[in-house]
Model the fold of this input.
Amino acid sequence: MAAPDQSSIAAVLLQQFETVFYSRPDLLFGSQASKNLSKHDGNTLRIPFAYLVGALDALGNGASADVLANSEAVLVGAKDFSPPAGLGGVRSRSCYVVVVQSGNAFDFRKYFHESPIASVANLPIWRWSVKLGEFGESDPRPSSLFAAQIAHSYALICNDLGELQTVAKRLTSADAQRSSDIREWASISSHDVWGYRRYLQTETNRTVAAGMTDVTPTAEALIFFLDSEKKTAVLRLLASDDSTAAKINAEAKLPLLRPIISGAWETSIPLSGDATTSERMGAMMWLFGFGLYL
Done:
């Protein structure tokens, strides 16, 4: 079931970022067996959260295990997609929001031994550096990361200070954001893993890295969710005509997108843990801005 604050967090992130992914923390722990998934399929589903565990591990003192063990959900927002230098994953400005379990006394401050570098809404912000491979194999510079905690509700980890400050302000605002304007929200939010891309049509200078090669101006949104019972990944396109669906189908990297209702096309990928599944899931992740240059 959805985390209690999933609706407001998703609305905040979708207001600020182009793509948002959500996962229950057990998938990030590597326990894909609990969802009857193969190792390969579990690893592919973790692509949007690829840097989170490494970023937390760099803090030491078992930070990653502690944060995820005390969480009930993790979301990530991403935008401004760029190709890596050489091989590697598509780069983006991104921000993770870890939803802390209700009633938990988790305190992010115990992992930081230096003074905060800034603040937002009276919350301290810490900075640290770690080599995550964020910029590609030909650019080994470390990533700069920023973190803040909102009461005992959320832990924020972002690769951009300004994005963290904006997310924190919106999450602490008295005028809470809501998901009422997110199409298909009731359907996708019931799943343990989902993704939502609201096309802003702003990534045209980096169309390949942004996963926009086949996206026409009539595309509104792209939705993904894991159907654990059927062991399938479902991809749904929302658009005012079939031009984007036709271009994606012509690439033949995914099972055919077929119309399901007016303005919506859908396909499913059986999660079989084989090479075909990996290729299809990789192609799907690319459409959300999480492509891999191999």
Notes: The chain has a mean pLDDT of 89.
